[in-house]
Amino acid sequence: MEFCPPSFDLIDPILFTIGPFDLFGMELRFDLRWYALAYIAGLLIGWRYMIALARRPQIWHPAGTKKPKAPFTETQVDDLLIWATLGVIVGGRLGYVIFYMPDMIWERPQDIVLGITDGGMAFHGGLIGVSLALFIFARREKLDLMRIADAAAVVTPIGLFFGRLANFINGELWGRPTDLPWGLRFATDPLCTPRHPSQLYEAALEGLALFAIVNIATWKFRSLEKPGLNAGLFLLSYGLFRALLETVREPDAHMPEALRGYVTMGMLLSLPMIAAGIWLIHRALKPAAAARA
């Protein structure tokens, strides 16, 4: 592929390199990429934020509740970090392969694991992976799954924000061609044409706007008092944002010809999120649910 002169100064996707060095005749090197750093930052900041939620038991109960208690402990949040990390990595990678590169399964199965250093993670797969991890963790620790999901909804947009910025640095997941003044050329684009910087749009909506929605609900409207409400707000808002942004992202090449350019895999995967979000919000706001909380 010929190099396309980008519209902006390239940011090296590799932050720094250790090596190369020789180990038993093998030349080894370790690259720390911005993409990996985004995952690390999102998980660590989210972990500390969840601990902060555990230290404020009063936000989980109606005002005036005597001796309020948080639904999980700080130690349980520490353990949850490990489960969530596994869910993000395993689910995100398998989701990418299944939803976007299914031919990899039979053509080059070794790349499912070995190719992860070259990129290739899917949010919807990560969401499924983390959801399963939360479910198993809640059963194992005898915790309320909805309460854990609500806390996860508060912190997840942090990782989404960093992840989309890393996509931009990598020059991947760019948008459709545009003649708007802020259109950018990306070095990896074979057409070398100005495109929507859709990664930055997603960082703004899936990251900043979604963080604002869930956190305003949490701290101003005390949404944690209603189990499932934060989780529903997250799923509904993300699903709507993602479906909207898919209209400016480069269409999926593997979609059927009749649908390509109009319907994308991201849109299809967002529909169940929107439906689940609406159901959770309705469930959380019912008087019976409020009485149970």
Describe this structure in words.
- With 293 residues, the chain is mainly α.
- 57% of the residues lie in helices and 6% in strands.
- It contains 10 helices and 2 strands; from the N terminus they run ββαααααααααα.
- The chain has a two-stranded antiparallel sheet with strand order 1-2.
- Strand 1 and strand 2 form a beta hairpin.
- The chain starts with 13 loop residues before the first strand and ends with a helix.
Write the layout of secondary structure elements.
Layout (H helix, E strand, L loop, with lengths): L13 E10 L2 E8 H21 L19 H27 L3 H4 L3 H4 L8 H19 L3 H26 L27 H22 L9 H17 L19 H21 L1 H6 L1
Antiparallel strand pairs: 1-2
Helix pairs in contact: 1-2, 1-6, 2-5, 6-7, 6-8, 7-8, 8-9
